[in-house]
Amino acid sequence: MITDISPIDGRYATKVAPLSECFSEYALLKNRVKVEVMWLLALCKESGIPECRAVSSREEEQLRAIVTNFSPEEAEKIKKIEAVTNHDVKAVEYYLKDQITGSSLEELSEFLHFACTSEDINNLSHALMLKDGTAALRPLQEQIINTLKALAHEFKDIAMLARTHGQTASPTTVGKELAVFAARLQKQSSNIARVELLGKLNGAVGNFNAHLSAYPQVDWTRLAKGVIENDLGLVQNLFTTQIEPHDYMAELFDAMARWNTILTDLNRDLWTYISMAYFGQKTVTGEIGSSTMPHKVNPIDFENSEGNCGLANALFGHLSAKLPISRLQRDLTDSTVLRNMGVGFGYSMIAYHSTIKGLSKLKLNEQKLCDDLDNAWEVMAEPIQTVMRKAGIEKPYEKLKELTRGQKIDRETIRQFVEGLDLADEDKKRLLAMSPASYVGMAAKIVELLD
Predict the structure, then answer these.
(1) Tell me, which fold does domain 377-435 have in CATH?
(2) How far apart are CA 425 and CA 405, in angstroms?
(3) Integer Cα distance of 316 and 9 in angstroms
(4) Burial track 338-361 (b if 16+ CB lie within 10 A, e otherwise)
(5) What is the three-state SS of 246-280?
(6) Which of 352, 364, 264, 353 is CA-nearest to residue 314?
């Protein structure tokens, strides 16, 4: 809506729509309902808890249907209960009791939320939200990586004048520079995927106190593990207080932030290459670059991505630094912070869409690349002085420094210098055949090594 305060919910709402199924209040409530139902079903299957009888296949279907049929309208029912209880998790318990009232399952009502603290439900719900959220971002991250790989292979032989400290440096190829970013992002994607999403179902202070007080013979660690790992696809953490310590969340947010930092690096480099006219941009019909300068085609997509990566990382940085810290067995500072996980993912998703759009508009300007290479013969000082070292010529670096530093150098200057060197014919011939455009080392072969 035009009155939305957050651009995620307003200006960029369509770009982040998939995340509403992952991080909205509705998503949180749906996951809470799922955890409660899975816990009840597990209790019903435990022979050591005879009072929580086994359910029939029809009754199990009825319980599972509460989860599969859960809608925003059902979520609103929970919010109305919460308005009275002023407790969000207790409202879910009461909602579920209402759902089975009048059915054969009603006699099991008091085993809903049995021996659980609210954080047993919340920590698993948050883990499920992160599981869904990372899955929602993964296709966009893969699209960026795959696009960079395709461009790297397409341009692997296109020579480009490199710059270190902003100054002319040994040439590379366009493809190799893009391959570097593809490889970096791919590695960080692997790091994100390796983070184990943890969960606990061990009660008020993490010791199964209440569980054992009622049923001391039950293997509660095994029972909880079955729900956490088999039903929810997470990993059990037994070493907790009232809360799962959130260390894995910090790992995940740090990994996400590194991914976004590398993307920011890519955005800035592409922005710079566009400003140098190495890349042009395809025009979009009706799109305006400047309100006063009609000729402009601004690199707005890479700028937009950079800004949103920064916002995402600001959130991820706070989440990573704050969440592993609590007071004694728990305080509530994590509760409000966790509700903002989706904001970091939202800004990330906006950034990814912008980079993808920017990449799709790039047009390589080979003539500009050639012109810059031909005007940078000073970069040939590196191979010449290296061959001079091989030949045992005295002070090769110093001689090339005197020849090239601060001087205008062209092909003829280099030819004359090489001709005057006491080198083996083969070495001299090879140096004379070199040019800035051909002095690219193994750039193309490195691109071919890209997975």
Answers:
(1) Ribonucleotide Reductase Protein R1; domain 1 (1.10.40)
(2) 27
(3) 19
(4) beebbbbbbbbbbbbbbbeebbeb
(5) CHHHHHHHHHHHHHHHHHHHHHHHHHHHHHCCCEE
(6) 264
> How does DSSP classify residue 231?
I
> Structure tokens of 245?
């310590």
Question: Which residues belong to the active site?
Answer: 165, 290
**CB 287, CB 357: distance < 8 Å:** no
Location of structure tokens 């603290």 = 117
- For residue range 327-359, what is the model confidence (pLDDT) as tens digits? 999 999 999 999 999 999 999 999 999 999 999
Place of tokens 């709402």: 13
pLDDT tens for residues 16-65? 999 999 999 999 999 999 999 999 999 999 999 999 999 999 999 999 99
Check: CB of residue 344 under 8 Å from CB of residue 312: yes
Contact 134, 252 (CB under 8 A): yes
How many degrees, rounded to 5, is the angle at CA 78 between CA 75 and CA 82?
Answer: 140
Domain extent listing, the chain: 17-118, 377-435
pLDDT for position 2: 84
CB atoms within 10 A of CB 314: 14
- Cβ atoms within 10 Å, residue 404: 21
Length of the chain (residues): 451
Domain 17-118 has CATH 3.20.20.80: no
